[in-house]
Design brief:
With 106 residues, the chain is an alpha+beta fold. Helix content is 25%, strand content 20%.
Length: 106
């Protein structure tokens, strides 16, 4: 992202330390200069789900700038594969079908 190699595992571990989240997955969507870190999260309490700004502030305390989130998608549950792992392809497809307000459809 922005010319810096990114591993999303630290992002997930940091996100899961936030008390407002039950589950999280981070994907790098796009390529090159348009690559963005998008968090897909399940709130511990949907009525009090953290905002993107709150999660950015939380991550900023623990991660380098290049690993701070660019976008946030709240879900009722993370999709799972047949063997119980997070279905990253389904998340990417969901994001493509429902872009965030700042992201135009491709």
């Amino acid at each position: 992202v922005n010319g810096v190699p990114v591993l999303s595992v630290p992002d997930i571990a940091v996100l899961l330390r936030h008390p407002g989240l039950r589950e999280a997955c981070v994907l790098v969507l796009g390529a090159g200069l348009t690559a963005r870190l998008i968090a897909f999260v399940v709130a511990a309490d949907p009525a009090r789900a953290p905002t993107l700004l709150q999660l950015k502030q939380h991550c900023r305390e623990h991660l380098p700038r290049s690993m701070i989130l660019d976008g946030l998608r709240r879900l009722d549950a993370l999709p799972r594969t047949g063997n119980g792992k997070v279905d990253r392809r389904a998340l990417a497809d969901h994001h493509a079908d429902h872009p965030t307000p700042r992201e135009p459809r491709p």
